[in-house]
Amino acid sequence: MIDYEEFDKEIKQLVSYNKFSGCIQISNREEILFRRAYGYASRSYLYENKIDTKFNIASVGKVFTSVAILQLVEKGVIDLNAPIKEYCQGLISDDISDKVTIKHLLTHTSGLGDYVGSVNSSSHLTAYEELDDFTDIILNDSLSFEPGTQWNYSGIGYLLLGLDELADEFTKDLIQKEYHSVTYYRPREIIK
After folding, report:
1. Which tops the pLDDT comparison, 131 or 115?
2. Domain residues for 11?
3. What percent of the chain shows pLDDT beyond 90?
4. 190 pLDDT exceeds 60?
5. 157 pLDDT tier (thresholds 50, 70, 90)
6. What is the pLDDT of residues 56-108, one digit of tens each?
7. Radius of gyration of the chain from Cα atoms?
8. Could you tell me the CATH number of the domain that includes residue 68?
9. Is this prediction's pTM over 0.70?
10. What gap in Å lies between CA 108 and CA 98, rounded to an integer?
11. In this structure, are 66 and 31 located in the same domain?
């Protein structure tokens, strides 16, 4: 059994040393046992974390996307070697969607580019918050090489893998069921 008051004190001590900043939730299948936000989401602006703070996890999400897509391949829902036009009709030009496969998107060998330069200026920070906000970037992208012939990091490829047209309700349910786990801190003196 965890002494949550002691746990909270330990985390607050880490926060006071600038060793931790974030949100912690401990739950079982029936209920949330502990939920707190600590520290700052932005130390520069002194913006404190809240339970509903959205964190920029950058490319960490690609790991979950690729595992979920490969599990859908394993279940026969998605064909790894199918052209993306079967899943992303109208999101990217037909000449590209006929050539690029799901495998190309997963392995950064599609020839599609990255969107980072387009969205990282301060004037664009609020313009790209939802997947739909990237539509123009995706529609206007072109191939920098023939799919499968080279490797180049492609954020656009993973945007396509994560779009609702490909990641339907089945995928969302799969991710919720398979990856709903909590990473937690367990100092011995707190666990009784």
Report:
1. 115
2. 4-48
3. 36
4. no
5. confident
6. 777 777 888 888 888 888 988 889 999 998 887 777 888 899 999 999 999 99
7. 20
8. 3.40.710.10
9. no
10. 17
11. no
- Read off the tokens for 134: 């990237």
Catalytic residue list contains 118:
no
Distances (CA, A) of 150 to 94, 115, 142, 147, 187: 21, 18, 15, 7, 47
Return d(Cα 115, Cα 128) in angstroms, integer.
10
> Judging by beta carbons within 10 Å of its beta carbon (0-12, 13-18, 19+), is residue 92 exposed, middle or buried?
buried
Which pLDDT value is given to residue 120? Answer: 47
Residues 6+ apart with CB under 8 A from 57: none
Closest CA to 111 of 162, 146, 65: 146
The CA-atom distances, in angstroms, between 126 and each of 20, 67, 80, 120, 139 are: 27, 29, 34, 10, 20
- CA 41/CA 136 separation, integer angstroms: 29
- Among candidate residues 27, 42, 59, 142, the one labeled active-site is 59
Number of alpha helices (DSSP H) and beta strands (DSSP E) in the chain: 8, 4
Give a yes or no: residue 187 inside a domain. Answer: no
pLDDT at 67: 86
Assess if residue 190 is contained within a domain.
no
User: Tokens 């990217």 identify what position?
Assistant: 92
Into how many domains does the chain fold?
A: 2
Q: Looking at the structure, do residues 143 and 101 belong to the same domain, yes or no?
A: yes
User: What are the structure tokens assigned to 161, written together?
Assistant: 């893998």
